[in-house]
Design brief:
alpha/beta, eleven-stranded mixed sheet, two-stranded antiparallel ribbon
């Protein structure tokens, strides 16, 4: 069975990287310096669950057709990204959004906005949702919101794994019956190596959270960020996640993008124009080209990859997204390295 690379952020269980290196059948890095790589052989993910038919305006139907064509052509992905909040209880060295416990501007999307976005996305033909931050579980209402999102489209939520109280787990338990996963960050098998970039005690909290989530029947994925020059023993890290019941296809490995705090720290690599497949991304600051776009540096949101302002109606945001040069067809000699 051949290996497979996951999409940006390691969250797309459906769309593989088109890298010829994957045919080798061994653990490999994609030719993209940013592509996260699944550490094991691919096993099929259930087909995306689509919600029932919805009425779409004539104007929106044009965007639906254009969007479907762009997805088919491989110019954009069919996943909607939501930045729930930029608030976080950690302050990771390579954070794209300069998130930390005392962040002044939290840039929070309300539960209502997130649910409206997903409902409209389903009507427009999106296939899945990713929710990130910040730390999404800093929002007290997020567990219930996440369940409602997952009832509409397949969903993955990114988390640092430190805030799973009994109340949160109780509210998340319905995810066990839905097409959903929670992706936890774990950068090393060694507590000290993990915590140097993520904060003291993080390793212990994540490792403790995994069996608690899985005990509720919730699917857990692991994402490993490899920081420049850091020694990461992937064999031992993979042995750890396997011992915790996380299969290889649910472990992804990715590099650092030099944006946000990572840029100030001199970490990671610059993001090239064709390194990331565009995926409509919504934040409190507007509409962006992909989930690496709405970063924060020195307290200011980067706008170089912002494609629009108002989030709603989502059909208009989609139209602005599809009109951006980054989503347009290019010559056959251009290869998108991250799928």
């Amino acid at each position: 069975m051949r290996q497979r690379c996951w999409d940006v952020f390691g969250n797309d269980p459906m769309t593989p990287t088109r890298s010829g290196a994957l045919a080798a059948g061994v653990r490999v890095w994609s030719r993209s310096r940013f592509a996260p790589t699944a550490c094991g052989a691919f096993s099929a993910y259930p087909p995306a669950a689509r919600i029932g038919s919805r009425l779409v305006s004539v104007l929106a139907s044009d965007h639906v057709t254009a969007f479907a064509g762009a997805v088919t052509d491989g110019r954009v992905g069919d996943r909607l990204w939501l930045y729930a909040t930029y608030h976080c209880n950690l302050a990771c060295s390579y954070c794209l959004t300069e998130s930390h416990p005392k962040i002044a501007v939290r840039r929070t999307l309300t539960s209502g906005a997130m649910l409206q976005a997903v409902a409209e996305a389903a009507a427009l033909g999106f296939g899945s949702v990713g929710v990130t931050g910040g730390e999404v579980f800093m929002l007290p209402s997020f567990p219930i919101t996440l369940v409602e999102i997952a009832r509409m489209l397949p969903t993955v939520a990114l988390s640092n794994g430190t805030l799973f109280t009994d109340r949160v787990l109780d509210e998340l338990e319905p995810l066990a019956d839905l097409d959903a996963a929670i992706q936890l960050s774990l950068d090393s098998h060694d507590p000290a190596s993990n915590d140097v970039f993520r904060g003291g005690g993080n390793f212990e909290q994540v490792v403790a959270a995994i069996p608690r989530l899985r005990g509720r029947g919730i699917r857990v994925r692991i994402a490993t960020t490899v920081v420049d020059g850091a020694a990461v023993d992937l064999d031992r890290l993979c042995a750890l996640h396997r011992s915790l019941g996380i299969p290889d296809e649910d472990h992804v490995v990715r590099g650092v993008v030099r944006r946000g705090r990572a840029a100030n720290e001199g970490l990671g690599k610059e993001l090239g124009q064709d390194d990331v497949l565009p995926e409509l991304t919504l934040t409190a600051d507007g509409v962006f080209l992909h989930p690496f776009a709405p970063t924060v540096q020195n307290g200011v949101t980067a706008t170089d990859l912002r494609v629009g302002g108002p989030l709603f109606p989502l059909a208009d945001a989609l139209g602005a997204f599809l009109g951006h040069p980054g989503t347009q067809a290019r010559g056959a000699d251009v290869v998108r390295n991250v799928r």
